[in-house]
Amino acid sequence: MSRIREIQGAVICASLFEVAIGLSGLVGFLLQYIGPLAIAPTISLIGLSLFGAASGFAAKEWWTAIFTIVLIAVFSQYLRNIDMPCWSYSRAEGWKRSTLPIFKLFPVIMAIGIVWTTCAILTATGALPTEPTEHGYWARTDTKLDVLSTAPWFRVPYPFQWGLPTVSTAGVFGILAGFLASIIESIGDYYACARLSGAPSPPSHAINRGITVEGIGCIIDGIWGSATGTTSYSENIGAIGITKVGSRRVIQVAAVAMMFFALLGKFGALFVTIPDPIIGGMFCVVFGMVTAVGMSNLQFIDLNSSRNLFILGFSYFFGLVLPFWLTDNNDVIKTGSEIFDQILTVLFSTSMFVGGLTGFVLDNTIPGTDEERGLLQWRKDVVLTENGKPKEHNSKTYDFPFGMNYIRRTKIFQYIPICPTYSSGGSLFKNLKFPKKFKRNVGSDQSNGVHASQRDTKL
């Protein structure tokens, strides 16, 4: 248990850094220098970098994976406009005929359910081989039954269940490196989620708040001894694109359901019995959706520009090459500090960090007009209207669910980076200076009436 207590302590301490980063407004401040050429590779590489996981699961039994892919595609694309008839009852109107867009709402669940049931039938009838070395074995539903049999029926987790956490410098900085990489991934996930949900792109205060809450969630994880952190998950974002369900109410109900079913050990263990090829087929679809969402940001830039093509191509390719090489050569970074070596290795082994950082640096240092870089359309469509004022729906989408009248009346909230009324004028980094060449590329655009200081608008 000593090892897991050390991980607990590292997670809690590293989470405090993540909370501080969110509360400081640093991430939101950097967003004013991030455009489509940085966002596109960041989001796309989230999906592309996970092709190994998808192929690893699917390769165990390709026919099962393909069956899953075909069903998801048929339900979500070919049958998405077909509604199933159903009946509802109310005291006022009695029985009433209505329709339910079942194929649009539940394509992934239906596909998994059908393939899982088929595999269970084939397993029960002995149609699938019983030897792990034979083709088709991994489509069986009884390969992980020991997990289901050993799981308790009911269990309540509690704080420090493994004992008091211990802290080591190497452990904290090792986990911190992972948290820094997850912050980069989360920024891309936030943009992808907003785009798939039909919502405006998140303003700086929403990004700051998201990172802060992720850090708080990680602190709770460490206290409860889960030995893992809390962050955004690309698979769920891909599911939004397939199901077209982006309601916050759905997420809230799902969160309550997860907390309830987490107490039932047998229920969670049941889903472990889903054959790996089914998971692999689902990964192929949802991670592909995440990749495509990242590429959709390219509509804002001039794709006839050799400058943009160079930045785009190199960001994507280098974002795959360097992490792939470091996977097999994780001991080549030697700065003289073992902790710093570990941090750099984790960061540069993360595709979305490498690709996003490459696009960010090149886009802000290689000369190019705002129109060529896509910033004019980017600001107009996802941040501001043509006169430089915030879009009306943007100001409401990322508001708190309650207390907004008081927050708007109280000026001090303008200086808190996680509040919807936050103004960049109160940022801790407002006096931070960038090189003139860097600032020229991201500075004011007088022709469009939009100044850099207007991008972090009080929302």
Describe this structure in words.
By secondary structure, the protein is mainly α. The protein has 22 helices and two strands. It has helices spanning 2-24, 26-31, 36-48, 51-58, 62-78, 102-105, 107-124, 145-150, 169-197, 204-224, 234-243, 248-261, 265-272, 276-296, 306-328, 338-348, 351-365, 370-373, 375-383, 392-397, 404-409, 436-442; strands spanning 84-90, 94-100. It has a two-stranded antiparallel sheet with strand order 1-2. A hairpin with a 3-residue loop joins strand 1 and strand 2 (94-100). Helix 4 packs antiparallel against helix 14, helix 5 packs antiparallel against helix 7 (107-124) and helix 9 (169-197) packs parallel to helix 16 (338-348). The protein is globular and about 65 Å long. Residues 384-394 and 439-459 have low confidence and may be disordered.
